[in-house]
Design brief:
twelve-stranded mixed β-sheet, 28% strand, 300 residues, Aminopeptidase, 9 helices, 2 domains, alpha+beta
């Protein structure tokens, strides 16, 4: 299994209040469907970094329980959108000013929902965290990661004839593997904390045609989840190779095959990999992925 094993490290935050110069510079609003075009245009400026939020909006709209949170927008004194954030189960954000970042951190801190993690570019996460948790006490685990991107050309390997979109008949193979990967990454087993919801989310992704599998003789050999699918970027995670199939080029062939399929309708494919996961990094490199930027995920 190509696990993104968690890396624990000390995360020291400055104990600073919001600078007075930032106070009053932004107005925050809960985003509704009438803002959809404006928000998607805002996110499209940096598609590799905003694919997760853009994908949710394209799939579910700005307001939906399927987003597992609410979208917020920050505007400057002239009314221009300066930041967009998803706050709920996850915290994700895209900002163009320090004031917008600080404002979204304040909204997130006041959110009554239980937030599980915050993810983003390492330099932005550090700034966000200074406002969200000055003492750093809320952080349970910090994972240092790399965002990798693939564009044409893609390494050409022998096609994998058995690689296909999963069906609901594959669900009993997919769910335990996906849960084990989630536990290895975050330290939380979703089959213990939210078994019904986790199975429903896995099933919905299968029904959307977003899970690709290679199954032989009832054994799951390869799996990958298309989390977000936009015209600019497709974001893939949950990439799994059966232990007995490793070292035989299975992961490389399947990823090459899958990425060629995806790049037929998008400009690039993105993955996030833990900095300690050398085997996964090697696999992605052989397919043609290149390092784009550093990311952090903080589990709460």
């Amino acid at each position: 299994m190509l696990r993104q094993a968690a890396l624990v490290k000390t995360f020291t935050a400055r104990r600073e209040p919001l600078p007075a110069a930032l106070a009053g510079q932004t107005v925050v609003e809960t985003l509704t469907s009438r803002r959809t075009t404006e928000v998607l245009n805002f996110l499209a400026a940096r598609p590799i970094h905003t694919v997760y939020m853009a994908g949710l909006i394209r799939d579910n709209g700005l307001v939906s329980p399927l987003n597992r949170g609410s979208f917020y927008g920050c505007r400057d004194s002239s009314g221009e959108l300066q930041g967009v954030g998803l706050i709920g189960h996850a915290m994700l954000f895209e900002t163009r000013s320090d004031a917008a970042l600080a404002t979204l951190a304040g909204v997130a801190k006041a959110c009554p929902e239980k937030t599980r993690f915050v993810m983003g570019e390492a330099k932005q996460i550090e700034k966000f965290w200074h406002h969200y948790s000055p003492s750093g006490a809320d952080a349970r685990l910090l994972c240092s990661e790399m965002l990798l991107e693939l564009r044409w050309p893609v390494a050409v390997d022998e096609p994998v004839s058995g690689l296909r979109p999963a069906t609901l008949a594959d669900l009993e193979l997919i769910v335990p593997v996906h849960a084990e990967m989630s536990f290895a990454e975050s330290g939380v087993n979703p089959l213990e904390t939210d078994p019904d919801g986790f199975r429903q989310r896995c099933a919905r992704r299968v029904e959307q045609g977003r899970v690709w599998v290679w199954v032989q003789d009832g054994q799951l050999i390869f799996k990958a989840d298309v989390i977000s699918d936009t015209p600019e970027v497709v974001y893939v995670e949950g990439i799994y190779v059966d232990a007995e199939a490793r070292g035989r080029g299975v992961g490389r062939r399947c990823m090459s095959h899958l990425c060629r399929q995806l790049l037929a309708h998008t400009r690039s494919v993105g993955v996030i990999v833990n900095v300690q996961n050398a085997p996964a990094q090697k696999l992605y490199k052989t397919v043609g992925f290149k390092h784009h930027s550093y990311y952090d995920t903080i589990y709460l």
